[in-house]
Structure formats: C-alpha cells, structure tokens
Amino acid sequence: MTPLGERIRRLIATSGPVSVADYMATCLFDPQHGYYTTREPFGRDGDFITAPEISQMFGELVAVWLVQAWQSGGMPMPATIAEIGPGRGTLMKDMVRTIRRLAPDLASRAGFSLVEASPRLTAIQAETLRDAGLSFSWHSRIETLPEEPLFVVGNEIFDALPFRQFVRTDQGWLERAIGIDDGGNLRFATGTAALPHDMLPPDVRGAGSGSIYEIAPAREALMSAIAERIAAHGGAGIFFDYGNLVPSIGDTFQAVRRHRSEDVFAHPGEADLTSHVDFSALAAIARAHGLQAQLSTQGEFLLDMGLLERAGRLGEAAGDDVRRKISADVERLAAPDQMGNLFKVLAILPARFDR
Ligand code: SAH
What we know:
The chain has helices at 3-15, 20-29, 35-38, 51-54, 56-72, 90-102, 104-109, 119-128, 217-233, 279-288, 298-304, 307-316, 320-334, 336-342; strands spanning 18-19, 80-84, 111-115, 136-139, 150-155, 164-169, 172-180, 186-195, 212-215, 235-244, 254-257, 260-262, 272-274, 277-278, 292-297, 343-349. By secondary structure, it is of the alpha/beta class. Helix 5 (56-72) packs across helix 6 and helix 13 (320-334) crosses helix 14 (336-342). The longest helix has 17 residues, at 56-72. The protein is globular, with a radius of gyration of 21 Å. The termini are far apart. The structure holds S-adenosyl-L-homocysteine. S-adenosyl-L-homocysteine (SAH) binds at residues 36, 42, 50, 52-53, 84-87, 91, 115-118, 121, 155-157, 160-161. S-adenosyl-L-homocysteine (SAH) is lined by residues 36, 42, 50, 52-53, 84-87, 91, 115-118, 121, 155-157, 160-161.
C-alpha cells in the first residue's frame, strides 16, 4: 500500500467511509502525496500521453479556432487568452506560436494566462514557455482572471476534477462510498446519501438494480464559472476530454499508471484517477447562461479545422520518417478507433455568434 493509501485507510478506520469524490480529490491533490502535486504524469516515461503531447498540430488547430472566435467576436481588446489545467505547457506553447503568426495583433496585445492548481506543474509550464516570446500570468483559479473577454481552452481538465457515483438499490439511488474490508483493504461500500429520482435525466431513470450513475458537481461548478464570465464579458471556450455526449449509465471510474489501466485502489496517489465527462451536463450549463454550446467528437473537430491539410503541409519538407510519424499522429488524434470518437469537444460561444 502507498503512504497515501495507508493514510486513507486509517482515516476510514476512525471516521467511516469516504465518498468517491473525496477519495479522488485526495489521491490527485493531497499537498504531500497527491498525484498531480508530486508526479510527472505525461509522456512516454509517465503514465499517459495527451493530444498536445502527441503532436503540435493539435495546439495549432485549437489556436486557429480561438483566433476565428476572437475575429468573429469583433476582435475585442483588452482580452485574455487562457488555458485551464495546462499540464506541461505544450498546448499553450503551440498555440502562442500559431497566434503570433495568424494574428500578431492579438498575440502582442492580449494577456496570456494559465490556470493551474499544482505548484510543481506551474514551474514546469514556466520552463516550457520561457522562450515563447510573451509574458504569462498564472492563476490557481479562474475567478482571479481579469474581467474582460475570455478566450479559454482546456484539454483533459474536466476529467481530472472529482465526481460522485450513485448505485441503484431497492432503497433508491445511494451514493457509492469507499470503506475497508475485514483485511483492511480499500473496497467499495454503499453510503447513505441519496440522489433524488427527479435529478436523474429521464433516459437513465429506468436503469436496473446495481446500475451506476455519475454526477460531477465540481466539473459543473467550473463550467458555470467559465460560462458566467463569457456571458458577462464576451469571449469563447473550447474543451476536450473523453466522455459521453448523452447522459449514460455505467461505472467509468478508472486508474491509469504507466499507460495501463489498473484497479482504482492499487496505488493511491501514484496513479491518475479519472472518469468520463458528461458533456451533455456541461453543455446544459453553458446554455443556461445564454451561451451557444456545440458538441462534436475530437475527430470531427480536428478534420473540420484542417488536420489533413496541416499534416500535408508539415510533411512536404520532411523526410520519410517524419512523414510516417505525422500520419501516425493524425490517426492517433482523429481516427474513430483511436482518440477520434472517444474524445469529445464542447465549444461555447456567445449566443449571437455565427460560425
Ligand atoms: N492539458 C494538459 C494536462 C492534462 S492533466 C495536457 O493535455 O497535456 C490535468 C491538468 O489539470 C494538470 O495540469 C492538473 O494539475 C490540472 N488541474 C487539475 N485540477 C485543476 C483545477 N481545479 N484547477 C486548475 N488546474 C487543475
């Protein structure tokens, strides 16, 4: 058992079961032993590879989208360009390079901000962006960003925020909790908090006994804070994550370590913990703030933004090895059996916006 696992076990032994959300928040962000606070999750030597780490084309195409959103929004200035949960800072670096080329005015006059909860990753981002030719400011929450039009992106940020699970029982939908068995091992238990039936989307109400339904108030709160700003000051947002476009039943809690999925209790604090993002819930929040919310798959979005053309251009001057790598990257990012369908995209825009 990891040191953090020991601590969680002792806590449960003295105070009783914890919720899935509390377990996840502790495993990911415990100041001393948390996954994002202590480890290097990204890349081949880490635990998982994200889209911006696969290829520069991802950040370039996201930047094209942001520049178009800024232009169609009437090129407001001042404006903030922000990324939430920037990991190593690679996406921001690729976006800045592209924005400087496509819209030098935007690059030189906008404020660039990174919203990051982990002090360790903040330092890595500063290092990645040292030669980007612009200055950046860091925030630990979006509430402190300047009150002005906000053009914001996030890749794999919502799945890193805690979620809750409810199990269908004879007594209704009860929160799934984490307790310990007779041998002292972590295991799932049924808690007492109940989810009122009318909080479930109609399509999932008929699910049978033992079914699991997931909600994520922390994700919804983040979307609400973003949507509130864009509704008040203008701007646009685009978010990528794996998840579902319609409300779904099912247990999507997973741990990933060294590129393999493993038991969520195997290495508390040393494995990434995630679940599928319910994009329909996030889109509903944006719409409730009077914004447009457009949903698609990552494959559709990237192909629409010109992934193949960009790959062709990058490949023109390249040798065979690089050209092979570019086509493998295109497949990985956009093919339906790779990230193309699993990953979804939510774009949020002011209501009067046409694209
Ligand atoms: N976007 C990056 C990293 C994804 S991992 C990429 O695609 O490679 C999730 C990132 O979100 C990490 O940087 C993590 O520290 C950060 N994060 C998690 N919770 C956060 C929160 N509440 N606010 C800001 N950043 C957060």
